[in-house]
Structure formats: C-alpha cells, structure tokens
Specification:
Helices cover 25% and strands 30% of the residues. The protein has five helices and twelve strands. The radius of gyration is 22 Å and the shape is flat. Bound molecules: zinc ion (2 copies).
Length: 279
Amino acid sequence: MNIFSGRKMVIATMHGKEQVIAPAVASALEVFPFVPKGLDTDQFGTFTGEIERKYSPLETARIKCEAAMNLTDCDMAIASEGSFGPHPLLFFAACNEEWVLLVDRKNRIEITGRKLSTDTNYDYRICYNVTDLLDFAAKSCFPKHGLILRKSKSNSDLIFKGIIEQEELIEKFMFIYEKYGQVFVETDMRALYNPKRMQVIAEATSDLVDKATSFCKKCRMPGFGITASNPGLICSLCGMPTKSILSHIWSCNNCGHSEEKISLHKTAEDPMYCDICNP
Ligand SMILES: [Zn+2]
Ligand SMILES: [Zn+2]
C-alpha cells in the first residue's frame, strides 16, 4: 500500500530544486508534485548571510514544509536544506551535506533523506585583480556554476549573485574593485546556479525515496531506514573486530521500532584495515 499515491505534494523551493525532486517523487511515490507561487524560502536563511539561518538544516527544512503547506493548503510537502564547510573527517576537503524532508500532515509522519558529498565547488577568496578572479573562476567550474561578487564576506551592501557569463563577471568585478579596492568572490551555492549541489540534492532525494518505499513491520508506515551503524566486522586474518561496519540499525520514524541487520556486502574485513594486523 502506498499512502502517498495520487496525492499532491508541494515542493518548498524557489531555487529550481524541483528539477531533481519532482521526477524522483512522482515516479517512486506516485504523487503530483508542484511548486508554490509566492513562497519566499530565503526568509529562513541565505548562504550569503544577509539573512542568518536560525535553526538546524533539518528544522529549517521542516519550517519550509510548514510554510509551503500553509500557503497552498496542501497536506504534504517536501523541502531540502544544505550546508557547506570542511568535511567532518577528511582534513582540507570541503563538503556539502544535504537534507531532504517529507512532511505528511494527513498521516502525521516525516521521512528524511541525507547525503554527504565531497563533490562540491564550495570556495571563496578575496581578489585584487582580474587574473586572480579568472583563476578562481576556473577552479570553481565557472561558467557552468555561478559566482557571487561583493566587497567582503560581512558586507552585502553591494552584491551581485548568479553570475554565469565571463563578460559580466569582469564588468561587475571592476565595478566593485574601483569602489573598494578589493572584491570577495565566492561560489553561488543556490541549487539553480550549482549543478554539483543539484546532484547532491538528487542523491539525498533518492535516499528519502528509498525510505519512503520501505515499511515498518510493526506499524506498517513508510519511512523505515538506516539510522545508525555498528563497527566490528571481523578481520579475515586475525579474527579480531575492526572499525569497519558490521551491522546497521534500521528504525521507524513513526513508532520507534528498530532492528539490527548484519551488513551483507562483506563477511570479513581485509587485514589492510585491521589495527592489529596493519597498525
Ligand atoms: Zn587482523
Ligand atoms: Zn513503525
């Protein structure tokens, strides 16, 4: 039974995320997705900091869903929220974390999807000349990916967003440079101007769809998925537990039921990853 089938679903976005979210949910959940008119998601925070995000990404996605449902009188919504910064485990690597949240008011359930990716162009730099600017642009996958120019990170009095043409980039750069003697250049992380981010949102949506089509044995609601994992996979040489994943915890967001399932992709770990055999 698909409790979503045949229903409308509002996508709380103003930056084109429906490009990847709509086809995925329409085919897997048999819903009719649409984008609302007049929803300002920037009021809940912008990457450029003119409006500071007050809540966690997941809470922000929930606030966007609520706003979209209230605006359209639709009882089901989906929203995503991303963050960028240094990778939690890999030094020097930038990463993009995306959360996608589905809120079903009628059935009072929420389903989440998440993806952490290092395939991001997230970066920024202060430039003093056009050579520096074009060097940064080339490293940032411009012009396929948009750029933003302003005086400094903390000053948005004069800001140009969504630049995707070299002529415009140089022209706007000179305009700010002549006024302030420096230009803060950064990658535009809004989904519409950032294909790499759009791809991470697609992957987070795919994670959500997997959960939305996986059912809890106990309450029979969708949203049953992996929420944690346990290390301890046995080393094939010495037989001692390693840090590699032995099992996953699957849990239901609706009733709280959980199960531990042994990871099936490997029965033993290569001694290369064993702290005893390969310290
Ligand atoms: Zn070992
Ligand atoms: Zn359940």
